[in-house]
Amino acid sequence: MSDGLTEGQVAPAEGDVPLLAARDLWKAFGATQALRGVSLTIAPGEIHGLCGQNGAGKSTLVKILTGLVRPDQGAISFQGREVRFARPADAQAAGIAVVDQELSVVPALTVAENVRLGAQDTPFFVRKRKADANVTAILERVGIGDIRPDTRLETLSMPLRQLVEIARLLDRNAQLLILDEPTASLSRGDSLIVFAALRELVSRGHSVLYVSHRLDEVLDLCDKITVLRDGQLVAMHEIAEINHQKLVRLIVGEDGTRAMAEGAANAAHRSNRATHAGHEREIVIERVSLPPALTSFSYRIQPGEVVGLAGQVGSGATEILRSLGGLEPDALVDVTCDGKALRLRKPADAIAAGIYFVSNDRQTEGLFLSRSIETNLVGTRLRLLSKLGFVRTGKARRLAASLAERVVVRGARLSADAADLSGGNQQKVFIGRTLDASRNRLLLLDEPTRGVDVGGRAEIHNLIRNACAEGTSVVFSSGESDEVLALADTIITLKAGEVVAVHARAEMTEESLLAETTGTVGPAEVSVGV
Amino acid sequence: MARRSGMVANFRADTGAKLPAAVIVVMIIVFVTMAHVAGRPITWFNGYDIMQNFGELGWITLGIALSMIAGEFDLSLPSLYYLGGAVAVLTGVGHPWLGVLAAVAVGIVSGGIQGAVVAKFRMSSVPVTLGGYIILLGIFFVVTGDKSIAYSNYDVGARLDQPIFRVFSIHSLIIVVLFVVVAAVLRYTRVGVVVRAVGGGRRASRVAGVSVDRTLIGIFIVSAAGTAFSGALLGYSTSAATPNADLSPLIFAVTAAVLGGVRLEGGRGSLLGIAIGVIALSMLQEGLVIINISDQLSEMVTGGLLAIVALISAPDLRRRGFPGTRSAAVAAATPPPP
Amino acid sequence: MASRSDAPALAADDVTGAGMHAAEHRRPLLRGGPAYLPGVLAVTVGLTILLVFGAITPGFLTVANGKAILLSASIVGVLAIGETFVMISGSLFSLSIAQIAAATAMIYLPALRYGIGAAILIALALAVALNAVQGSMIGWWRANPIIVTIAIGSLTEGGAMVISGNRNIYPPEGNTKFMFILKNVGGISVSTYLFLFVGLVAAIVMSRTRFGMQLYMMGDNRRAARAAGLPVANLTIGAFVAAGLCAGVAGLMLAAISGQAQSSLAGNSTYDAIAAALVGGSAVTGGRGSIGRTVLGAIVIAAVTDLALQRGYNEGAQLVVKGVLVFVAVLLVRFAGRSGTRTA
Asked: Quick check: C147 and B309 in contact, CB under 8 A?
């Protein structure tokens, strides 16, 4: 890969007009300076990666390029012409389109109807045969020409739905596709399908701006990478000039790097510790099963142990956590603790047993956004704070304050709405409300740092480690191998609803993790305990 | 698999279509039983009555069903129904068409304003249409001055309701034609795709550039205009407008819609199913008339049926069964929710 | 490598059906300001209009008229407090509250022969039972509240008519003790005191008790409440039971005031009650509202009705005015409210 191109890609000739040239963009929202003189150049037929923490300016940049927001200063030229977008329709008409994680397709409609959705030039009476032929041609451009246009979208898998969405954008003559965290809900296998489609597209002269936190994907896919930090352009590198370590350092800056290094050192330190005492205090998961997504899972957890569940979509990790948390009434859950069988039919049962579940979706299944931060922190333990049904407000407030301090949510009034917090702070509040040393037996964290930037992630990892130090067991699932490797004492790899293997942290590397969860290594026998 | 097109194939393929099919069979049985019990023979007149009911309440059911398919709920339709009748009766003495037009105009304005507020301001349709319901009800009382208004042009009513082919009349045929037209539009035109898109994926449609707002406003206007129109026809048929506006059209419409396979969550529903729901429910009401029960009991039966309908369409009913028990069959059969 | 579940979370702006939208999509159009702002705004606007028109209507801005307004606000006010419980808990509203109040009155009067205490208990028990049924359907199985309450309301009304043979119900001969509600203490009717008392108790329950705070949380995000272990089904039933108690008390008051009862006793009060709650800034979607502001809203509605009456508006015109008020209040709550996420 000497010239940074993958096979089949058309090399832009020297002196070619770039597809997109954004120069010196500045944007402020009120007192916050979101972009400071950022420039970006994308050539035709290029996949360009855009990386940076939350708040670095990536989304502002994308919004400017798609016409949602107008820059205070700076210029954009597209296909050689200066452009000014007054609204999103202008950007789309020019040929810039964006795809984000939330799929914008209608499952109840067919593939053809989805591809033609919103097109201005459809005839009043739907003419099927002609429309179908056109649709198939477009589907071919993303490599799915073999899907019948009258297939109902709801019968297709997630990555295919995403490709149909891309097909729709191509139908509107998109030249530059901006993909914003497109693989957030996809497994590795599914992501590969999308990547193949992107390479196909790029070989026909389209360009892609790939915005993602998933550094391994960015390094795998992109020709060039631009890094933003604090609204500024930190670096733009060809793929050959950069590796994972350098990229992380660029994104996080000097302070951040130190915090992460500390975190990693702590992890190494902890995995050298002796196993915790007392088999009587272990939590014995005899069996968890939730067909068809989860065939069977069992394990014995020691107090203070951190178990990382590593797996892809459909691995069953989320189902394990939800079942143990009492959220799946249809699951078979057989758990014993202190010799007593636990009843885990509903969340209240789990909480009574000291098992606390933190969902991967804090907005729809976690926080009460129009309630105050204080309510969110203490609202789920009101029983302890009330007498005869009346809440003791002073006690509640003090508890909230101490929790906020503990989870490092500073600078916000406790009476402010939870909706005002950043994603990272919201996640910390969400986790924080479950923390109660006297009652926590087991914390179940489903993707605890989803949508959280690097700094917040480090803080949350510290929270988890501190909880363990107090004897709480933790089982978490994560899609980021570095997170699994940083946090877990024990790593359990899952695939397709079954356990592949159980490992101590010291035995695992990124490659072996990937190999087991993608099935390159066959499922080992289910092992119980470490 | 052979290519099938048209409403019927759609209907068969849709699992939600099983419900209306089952319902109509049940209702036919119930109806025949009732006639038997009352010792009265089933005559063509019963069929006529049923189709008249279809004509009277068919469109308001369609209107409510359309708003439900689009994910909304138009509470103002029942009072618009009566208002349409009052307006038509008042203005259509000399020229019946004028009365109908006036009623439809009122409907367009009402649907337009409420639809615009719901769409442009991104509001829940429930509180908005509740306000609309109250306002239209008030206008109705103002317009009728709290008295019955007689419509002197009896001719129109008579002609409207004259039996054709024994069971139909101009009144019911107009509504049947309207149903067919709407069904065709939904199935074969661009508009239909958009309506289904807005109901099945609001955000996705917006992102894709569909003018969601205009579609919603259009749905509100069409259902309101049609409701006012049927109200006008009703006023002519009964040759009067009485100041008696209650929720019974709404009860009928929601019951018929859900029995016809429309889901409360939105996105699903077929016109044939809705039509079947209306006919089935009309059949039930006709049966109640035959066995000659009091009005209050009849009201209780429809209320009870609505309660059952509420239960049927309750999302958690299949999942949770009854409190304290756990249906093993349900547990095994139900896939885990996302 | 990813382990997220297959289906995406409910996307912003998607509809969950029957007019309800996923909470996320509503972006407030006016940022900033405390959460109670829309309610305060709505009430302020209402009061201003009242004062302006009141000033030009003779006899309106007098103490005597004020007491009359408070009196007529009592019944609607108690009903509105009941509706507020339902609204805050996220179950939209109850369209059966008037019929249940009437049915309560219809059972209260004959039961007076067992003594006033027993009669009150029996009557309230009926109201609570009818509402508990609705609460169960809505809480356990998530049936649509509008449809359930219309259905039960219709059943109750029909049932009451059938049982009473469609005649008026009268108290036992010569029994007038129950009419104590009409008495005046310190120049103000007992029913006004009762209304304010119910308001006070309800306000304390909503703001100081665990039950109240949990209702607010559940109304804001039912799914999150369930995941956090809150007893959502029981809370819903509890909210409806509270509403049932309010309906029952209103029925008792109605029986006392009218001296007799029939199924249409409470007339169109349901809409007045909902209007009062909405004008008080409660959001139909749940998680927001306050008993205190509902009390103010009821007074505003009663005042508006009185004003309209004094200016010669007939029943229809009054309804139009109230409908417009509801419309405006709902818009205000939407615009100045903060329900939902602040998007980036």
From this structure: yes
Has residue C298 got a pLDDT over 80? Answer: yes
Question: For testing the chain A interface, which of B185, B193, B318 should be mutated: the one with the most A CBs within 10 Å?
Answer: B193
pLDDT band at C204 (very low <50, low <70, confident <90, very high): very high
Q: Residue A365 is encoded by which pair of tokens?
A: 């299944």
**Statement: residue C282 has pLDDT above 80:** yes
A343-355 per-residue burial string, b: 16 or more CB within 10 A, e: under 16: ebebbbbbbebbb
Whether residue C10 lies within 8 A of chain B, CB to CB, comes out as: no
- pLDDT score of A522: 39
B299 CB-side CA count, 13 A: 20
B71 touches chain A (CB under 8 A): no
Cβ contact, residue pair A106, B188, below 8 Å? no
CA-to-CA dists, residue C115 to C171, C175, C177, angstroms:
12, 10, 10
Q: Is the dihedral of CA C191, C197, C202, C203 positive or negative?
A: positive
Among A403, A374, A406, which Cα is nearest to A391's?
A374
pLDDT in tens, A457-501: 888 998 898 888 888 899 999 877 778 888 899 999 987 788 889
Q: Each residue of A129-144: pLDDT tens digit?
A: 777 888 888 888 887 8
Angstrom distance (rounded) from CA A460 to CA A259: 12
DSSP string, B146-174: TS-EE---HHHHHHHH--BTTTB-HHHHH
- Are A184 and C4 a contacting pair, CB within 8 Å? yes
CA distance A30 to chain B (A): 25
**What ipTM does the predicted assembly reach?**
0.81
Residues of chain A contacting residue B208, judged by C-beta atoms under 8 Å apart? 104, 117-118, 168
Determine which of A330, A333, A346 to mutate to test the interface with B (most B C-beta atoms within 10 Å).
Answer: A330
Q: How far is B1 from chain C (nearest CA, A)?
A: 30
Exposure of C95 in the CB half-sphere (CA atoms within 13 A): 21
Rounded average pLDDT over B268-294? 83
Please tell me if residue B267 touches chain A, with a CB cutoff of 8 Å: yes
Residue from A35, A294, A364 to probe the interface with C (highest C Cβ count within 10 Å): A364
pLDDT block averages, 10 residues each, chain A of length 530: 40 66 89 88 93 80 90 91 87 88 83 86 73 84 83 84 89 89 72 87 91 81 91 90 81 60 57 47 85 85 91 80 91 88 89 91 89 90 83 89 85 82 88 86 91 82 88 88 86 86 84 66 38
Encoded tokens for C10: 């409910």
Residue B192 has pLDDT above 60, yes or no: yes
DSSP state of A346: S
Q: Does A126 touch chain B (CB under 8 A)?
A: yes
* CA distance linking residue B133 with residue B269, whole number of Å: 25
Selecting from B134, B263, B323 the residue whose C-beta is nearest the C-beta of C323 gives: B134
Please report the pLDDT score of residue A143 as a whole number: 79
Tokens of A175: 């030249």
Check: CB of residue A31 under 8 Å from CB of residue A231.
Answer: no
Ramachandran region, residue C57 (left: φ > 0; alpha: ψ -120 to 50; beta: rest): beta
- Stretch among A415-429, B241-255, C206-220 having the lowest mean pLDDT: B241-255
Q: Which chain A residues contact residue C231 at CB under 8 A?
A: 348
* Residue with tokens 């039996």, as numbered in its chain: B163
Q: What is the rounded CA–CA span in Å between residue B202 and residue C22?
A: 11
DSSP character string of C266-331: TTTHHHHHHHHHHHTT--TTSS---HHHHHHHHHHHHHHHHHHHHTT--HHHHHHHHHHHHHHHHH
Task: Please report how many Cα atoms fall inside a 13 Å half-sphere around the Cα of residue A417, on the Cβ side.
Answer: 20
Instruction: State whether residue A93 is helix, strand or coil.
Output: helix
